[in-house]
Specification:
Shape of chain A: globular
Oligomer: heterodimer
Strand order of the largest sheet of chain B: 1-7-8-4-3-2
CATH topology of the largest domain in chain B: Rossmann fold
CATH architecture of the largest domain in chain B: 3-Layer(aba) Sandwich
Helix content of chain B: 40-55%
Helix content of chain A: 25-40%
CATH class of the largest domain in chain B: Alpha Beta
Order of helices and strands of chain B: EHHEHHHEHEEEHEHEHHHHH
Number of helices of chain B: 13
CATH topology of the largest domain in chain A: Rossmann fold
Number of helices of chain A: 12
Number of strands of chain A: 14
Number of strands of chain B: 8
CATH superfamily of the largest domain in chain A: Thiamin diphosphate (ThDP)-binding fold, Pyr/PP domains
Structural class of chain A: alpha/beta
CATH class of the largest domain in chain A: Alpha Beta
Distance between the termini of chain A: 46 Å
Radius of gyration of chain B: 21 Å
Strand content of chain A: 15-25%
CATH superfamily of the largest domain in chain B: Thiamin diphosphate (ThDP)-binding fold, Pyr/PP domains
Largest interface: A-B, 48 and 45 residues
Number of domains of chain B: 2
Largest sheet of chain A: 7 strands, mixed
Shape of chain B: globular
Structural class of chain B: alpha/beta
Number of domains of chain A: 2
Chain lengths: 324, 359
């Protein structure tokens, strides 16, 4: 089936709910409205309001409720309407979701999935363009996942729902309807904790995820014309990170660039650069560079283009690394 | 019975008077053995709490929140629960733990600094205590929705203090419960203080129980130093919840006789006179009088109960202290269902840095 990412996510939810009646969906507007992006469209008709719960407008309450559901044997998939509104639930996520297993030595767990659209590039209003994945990657016990294609979105979401660990599933808004792809109709898993080499190359590795993958691809195509062969590693699971795939690529190419749309300081790029420095220093022909958003608040649409990393900025960094 | 006490009119459910006589229309009608059991549980709670305080002062147990003065609220509530009900406690619930059969050795073990003590034994429906204030409230609501969804019997009880009613999670949890009409019993143990901040600084509302009105379900204030009042209200609220009648908020009106935690000094913010006034309303003393009015208490019984409590406590301390400390594996192994390579490497590095005996 040819699907865009929203449709692939919808299919993952419907397929898993069909398969396992422990799976319930909850959040604001997930029922009759089918979600503001239509990711849960049709689910309430198919599975009823007991399994597709429109909740009061309260993010902390929704995640707290999801913890109780999960601890008593269900598999909730909670939707937070935008990542910019996840912060009221931060306490529930950090203080409980991530550590329930540890603090009860495994007696209770919170195998829930939190889906939320995230990221800039769609000319949205204020608070609708955040990319704060690093905040969550810092929390032991959480798994943070970002798909970059319809195929991966479906397979990763299925894997997230089936995972015994809590998963924060970040959906790049910019990619929701950007690309269509052939997606198998039946259920399948794309494994968590595994990065993918989505473009092979010889000279330089770009590590990216989510909506930065198309930017990396565009830069790689442009670099190709300049005789530079770029390999792209799509991290897919940001935490726990698949460092081996990153390192294997860098050991091969000898050069690395990390690309993310989140601000630079303490972004995941720092973690990745440190990993490369710790484990592949002698393979490097040049310093690891980062192309990121600046350390400022996401600007409103009129100047969003100044903020959002684009392929020109990536290409400049590629040249700098190659000329080192 | 709950609806007979309107918190908006300042009415409070109280079964026992100061002389320990039960009000005939309100007495929950427990038999002799059950009444004595309530007393035994309160005595055990007080003994276990006093022991924990001693252990803390001796450096054998860490910072914890004492339960002195809360015995009636804790024991009365938990005595109304069955093993099919679920409990989402806060951090001052020793009497409920003892009543529900949570091993006291585990309770001590946790407060001595080992997470293993927070692992509820299989078969007991007790969630780990919530230390971030109020955060357990929406979780208890989710658990109640899960019971309903899975068509399981039972209700979900959650406890919290007066300070928690100022938290967003209190509001969000009770609001969800009203909307989803969940089998929940919310028990606010109003002990008049959130560390040093008095109840009057938490809300301008006359009672905490009346907050239920705005969520669309009943709320009742009960005398939290009257074990029969707490029991009666909890029993009724649980029956309503289990039969699909929706949630109830119970405010157990009491007083924190001890410090907030062992790291606190309550003398900084309240007077001795105030504390002395509340000593007169001691929940154990009042219930002892009640047992006396029924011919169920004498010196010999008291001695027997105290001796049994002491043995119960000492055995638990010995058991907790005999347990081995957590290993490096223990503190790593439960972060994820399966340890990722990063953690394996960090664990190996930690172990290689440790002396032989700690690996």
């Amino acid at each position: 089936m040819i699907l865009n990412m929203v449709q692939a996510i919808n299919q993952a939810l419907a397929g898993e709910m069909e398969r396992d009646d422990r799976i319930v969906v909850l959040g604001e507007d997930v029922g009759r409205d089918g979600g503001v992006f239509r990711a849960t469209e049709g689910l309430i008709d198919k599975f009823g309001p007991e399994r597709v719960m429109d909740t009061p407008l309260a993010e902390s309450g929704a995640i707290g409720v999801a913890i109780g559901l999960a601890a008593l044997g269900l598999r909730p998939v909670a939707e937070i309407q935008f990542m910019g509104f996840i912060y009221p639930a931060f306490n529930q996520i950090v203080s409980h979701v991530a550590r329930l297993r540890n603090r009860t030595r495994g007696r209770f767990t919170a195998p829930l999935t939190i889906r939320t659209p995230y990221g800039a590039g769609v000319k949205a209003l204020e608070h609708h363009s955040e990319s704060t994945e690093a905040l969550f990657c810092h929390i032991p016990g959480l798994t943070v996942v970002v798909p970059s294609s319809p195929y991966d979105a479906k397979g990763l979401l299925v894997a997230a729902i089936r995972s015994d660990d809590p998963v924060l599933f970040l959906e790049p808004t910019k990619l929701y309807r950007a690309e269509k792809q052939d997606v198998p109709e039946g259920p399948y898993e794309v494994p968590l904790r595994r990065a993918a080499v989505v473009r092979e190359g010889r000279d330089l590795t770009i590590v990216a995820w989510g909506a930065m993958i198309p930017v990396a691809r565009a830069a790689a195509a442009a670099a190709e014309a300049e005789g530079v062969s770029i390999e792209i590693v799509d991290l897919r699971t940001l935490s726990p990170m698949d460092r081996e795939t990153v390192l294997a690529s860098v050991r091969k190419t000898g050069r690395a660039l990390v690309l993310h749309e989140a601000p630079k300081t303490c972004g995941l790029g720092a973690e990745i650069a440190a990993t490369i420095g710790e484990s592949a220093l002698l393979n490097l022909n040049a310093p690891v560079l980062r192309v990121t958003a600046p350390d400022i608040t996401v600007p409103l649409p009129k100047t969003e283009d100044l903020y959002y990393p684009n392929s020109d900025r990536v290409l400049r960094a590629v040249r700098k690394i190659m000329e080192y | 019975m709950i609806e007979r006490f309107d918190p908006l009119k300042g009415e409070r459910l109280c079964v026992l008077d100061d002389e320990g006589r039960a009000s005939p229309g309100l007495d929950p009608g427990l038999g002799a053995a059950e009444l004595r059991t309530l007393y035994e549980r309160m005595v055990r709670t007080r003994a276990a709490d006093a022991k924990a305080l001693k252990l803390q002062r001796q450096g054998r147990l860490g910072t914890f929140a004492p339960s002195l003065g809360h015995e009636a609220a804790q024991v009365g509530l938990a005595s109304a629960m069955t093993r099919k009900d679920w409990f989402f406690p806060y951090f001052r619930d020793l009497g409920a733990y003892i009543t529900l059969g949570y091993p006291l050795a585990d309770y001590y073990h946790f407060w001595m600094g080992n997470e293993a003590g927070l692992r509820t034994p299989d078969g007991l429906n007790i969630f780990p205590i919530a230390i971030p204030v109020g955060s357990q409230v929406p979780q208890a609501v989710g658990a109640a929705i899960a019971l309903k969804y899975r068509k399981l019997p039972g209700a979900v009880v959650t406890t919290f203090g007066d300070g928690a009613t100022s938290e967003g999670d209190f509001h969000e949890g009770l609001n969800f419960a009203g909307v989803f009409r969940t089998p929940n019993v919310f028990v606010c143990v109003n002990n008049q203080f959130a560390i040093s901040v008095p109840r009057s600084r938490q809300t301008a509302a006359a009672t905490l129980a009346q907050k239920a009105v705005a969520y669309g379900f009943p709320g009742v204030q009960v005398d939290g130093n009257d074990v029969l009042a707490v029991f009666a209200a909890a029993r009724e609220a649980l029956a309503v919840a289990r039969s699909g009648g929706g949630p109830t908020l119970i405010e157990a009106y009491t007083y924190r006789m001890g410090d907030h935690t062992t790291a606190d000094d309550a003398a900084r913010y309240r007077t001795k006179e105030e504390v002395r006034e509340w000593e007169k309303r001691d929940p154990l003393a009042r219930f002892r009088l009640h047992l006396g009015t029924k011919g169920l208490w004498d010196e010999a019984f008291e001695k027997e109960v105290q001796a049994a409590a002491s043995e119960f406590v000492e055995k638990a301390v010995a058991e907790a202290e005999a347990r081995p400390p957590a290993s490096p594996e223990d503190i790593f192994a439960h972060t994820y269902a399966a340890m990722p390579p990063d953690l394996e490497a960090q664990l190996a590095e930690l172990k290689s840095s440790l002396p032989e005996g700690r690996r």
